[in-house]
Amino acid sequence: MAMEKKGWKKEFARDFLALGSWMFLVLISVRLLLLPHRWSRLFPLLYPFLIAIILVLILEFFVKDKIDYYISRAIILGFFVALFYKDNWFNGFVVAILFILLASSWYIGNSWKKINFGFLLGVFSIGLGLLVGGWLG
After folding, report:
1. Residue 86, by phi and psi: left (phi above 0), alpha (psi -120 to 50) or beta?
2. For 112-117, what is the mean pLDDT?
3. If pLDDT is split at 50, 70 and 90, which confidence band does 5 have?
4. DSSP, res 108
5. Chain centroid to CA 20: how far?
6. Which of 10, 13, 19, 55 could bridge to 104 as Cys pair (CB 3.0-4.6 Å)?
7. What average pLDDT is seen over the chain?
């Protein structure tokens, strides 16, 4: 019985980490592109979002097993989706989900060092994306 509970908890944690997967990122990106009246709110965020995601993708090829990239992608996705929707309740929901995501990553066995590097990479990518994307857009 205890084994089943632990299996359920790990499965739940993995499900939360899936919020930072490439597939979920593509799914949300396509969804935002299909919204009506999307371009006026989406365009200012497009370059910063793409720069942040491309930075994570490049680092993912060169730095393996030292960073939790699920955390990085989820932070980037959560940040830009929250900016897109501009709703305080939704922003609070995103923050709560990100805290659960951090705890889930730790629960399935990732070290705090790897999780922190993923968090810092996500925040750095967002900052760089906003900085460079502001110059491009």
Report:
1. left
2. 94
3. low
4. T
5. 5
6. 13
7. 85
- Single-letter code of the amino acid located at 103: A
Query: Quick one: pLDDT at residue 28?
Result: 81
CB 47 within 8 A of CB 136: yes
pLDDT of residue 1: 46
Domain ranges of the chain: 2-136
The C-alpha atoms of residue 70 and residue 74 are separated, in whole angstroms, by 6
| Position 22, amino acid | W
Nearest to 45 by CA among 120, 121, 126: 126
Q: Which residue has the tokens 């790897």?
A: 114
Strand blocks (E) in 23-89: none
Phi, psi of 67 (to 5 degrees): -130, 140
Name the nearest CA neighbour of 29 among 57, 49, 14, 59: 49
C-alpha span between 56 and 73 (Å, rounded): 7
Per-residue model confidence as pLDDT tens digits over 30-66? 877 776 666 666 677 888 888 899 999 898 888 888 8
Residue appearing with tokens 């939360």: 16
Residue 74, token pair as written in the block: 């989820």
- Contact between 55 and 127 under an 8 Å Cβ cutoff? The reply is no
Taking residues 117-125, what's their average pLDDT?
94
